Amino acid sequence: MSIAAKLAALPGQCSLCHDWGRGALCTACRALVAVRPRCRRCAIAVPAGQALCGACVREPPPFEHTVATLDYVAPWDGLIRHFKFHGQAELAMPLAGLLRDALARAGIDATTADRVLPAPLSDTRLRERGFNQSWEIARRLGPRADPALLLRIRDTPHQADLPLERRAANVRGAFAVEPLRRSELEGRSIALVDDVLTTGATAAEMARTLLEAGAARVQLWVLARTPAPGSA
Prior knowledge:
Order of helices and strands: HEEHHEHHEHHEHEEHE
Number of domains: 2
Strand content: 15-25%
Number of strands: 8
Shape: globular
Helix content: 25-40%
Number of helices: 9
CATH topology of the largest domain: Rossmann fold
Radius of gyration: 17 Å
Distance between the termini: 42 Å
CATH architecture of the largest domain: 3-Layer(aba) Sandwich
């Protein structure tokens, strides 16, 4: 048994309900994940039987498929914020497990992507947080995770601090492919991993960067999807 497996088997408090059990997220809390119909392109909740939301019909994003584990609402939003902003890297393993479950429900094997790339952080943001939360998730999804192929070349203000209509401009030109490794993308299927999808502006910019560098297709795997306004 690996060290990680031994640690997971030890008694501990659930990070969500604080009850005592096994691992950082108890079985009861895992069962709280709401499985709902989602738009295939952007993962916003849609009525049962509807493949795409109206926005994706009118203007499809450059990523062709999104898998989202859960809605970015209580209590999950607080858990993700603690993971992301309060140095609780130990939450990466149970959160990656939830994402792996969501991929399985969508019929996706994480090992089928040619590359699994985390949303990169700027050097400044990485120093602030101490780790890249997207990489901590991505590297637990299989051996094809790669933290150095997609780069963040421009620091930008936090997307959450900006009005929705300014977010696309905020991240324009913020990403690049490692120049000496562009050939690795040619004709490849790429999965991007991020923690939260809101407007999709950051994900769209990353996807465009990869497609322009030669990737054949890009899909998006995220922990949480922000619900449409007025739907939560």
